[in-house]
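Changelog-linked ticket: protoporphyrin IX containing FE example.
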Amino acid sequence: MATLAPEAPARAVDPLDVSRAELYRDDSWHAPFAELRAKGGIHYTEHSDFGAYWSVASYKPLVEVESLPELYSSHAGGITLADFQEGVDVKMPMFIAMDRPKHTGQRRTVAPAFTPSEIARLNATVRQRTGELLDAMPVGESFDWVDKVSIELSTQMLAILFDFPWEDRRKLTFWSDWAGDIERIKTPELRQQRLVHLFECASYFTDLWNAKVGKEKTPDLISMMIHSDAMAEMRQHEYLGNLILLIVGGNDTTRNSMSAYAWGLDQFPDERAKLEADPGLAANATQELIRWQTPLSHMRRTAKADTELRGHKIRAGDKLALWYVSANRDESVFEDADSICVDRSNARRHLAFGHGIHRCVGARLAELQISILIEEMAKRRLRVNVQGAPERIAGCFVHGYRRLPVELSRY
Ligand code: HEM
């Protein structure tokens, strides 16, 4: 009879391993992060599903790390806790995962799509589309806010940005979900499936690219890339990487902020009443909802040299998770940080968009979409009433909701 191999000894779970998917699925991340912050905000987890990593969980140390991009690299190990697997993954370079000087050139190429004048140009289109969508929503009937409102509005925006075929726009959502879900790379089968979808995405966008080559410049992102020096000569993988960056960057994040508007204000009805009484608070409420939600829980950096961070010895090659989700609840910066306060005076100081050279290039566009949603709801005197607990995303990267049953009423 064959002898059974001894079982691997069970690994003791570090209670402060905040990379565990269930913490986000069950919304139980608050307590371990509060403990991390109380202990100074820096902690080393030796064993996790993603290997060893440092947590940077308080506001000031996080800003410190982001301010030293030469020391803490975005390129050396990528931007999430999941490591690149040689022979399994295909390298998709994207500028969020590049260091200077390459990062600078590529960021400059897409930045013109997000200048104040471009945002002003997009204002009318976004307002019109949002209004049309809200007018078509049933009042007094149950529906899923995530699918019907958050996904639809953020996907429409991307379709406009890319001049993407309108009837196919949900493909953007599908690809974005595969690209951004850190749990879908935990098995070789899922990694393989993911690659298949990402290549479908690449092939679709290659056709769009080819259709625009040699044509007059138009204000969409693909045309902008074609007509730029830094990006025109990109290799296929690089083009794909940057597209995925823009799709995931602009999709899950805005989507989950819009869901936070519905869910969060339902949790804080007094704040909702304040906003309903004074829609002029929309811009500040937008910042506050982004802070409270923090749609990307972390970004990763990799130390390029031995160093010291507030008394902790970091070695070259160590990975650090910058937990925006926790820094935005740092009590030393945000009073009563777990509560939504639509007129919070320092809501703008949130770190949900990151900090430093990689700070979100699409921030203004995201703010525009969320503010317009709040304003257009107010114009119609529409209120979202949540009908049941949300289904949340299980994973430590994209922080948000899969489903949220709601009903609309008028006030
Ligand atoms: C970078 C969050 C919306 C495109 C980032 C980073 C974060 C972030 C945390 C990394 C910052 C760092 O490493 O310091 C968000 C949130 C959004 C949002 C919370 C919505 C509420 C958007 C939109 C777009 C976009 C609408 C574009 C359509 C990008 C790009 C980068 C980026 C291209 C890379 C910037 C660079 O590396 O220089 N975003 N984002 N994001 N985001 Fe966003």
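Closing comment: Example verified and attached. Residues 66, 95-96, 107, 161, 245-246, 249-250, 253-254, 257, 290, 295-296, 299, 324, 352-356, 358-362, 365-366 surround protoporphyrin IX containing FE (CB under 6 Å). The longest strand covers residues 298-303.
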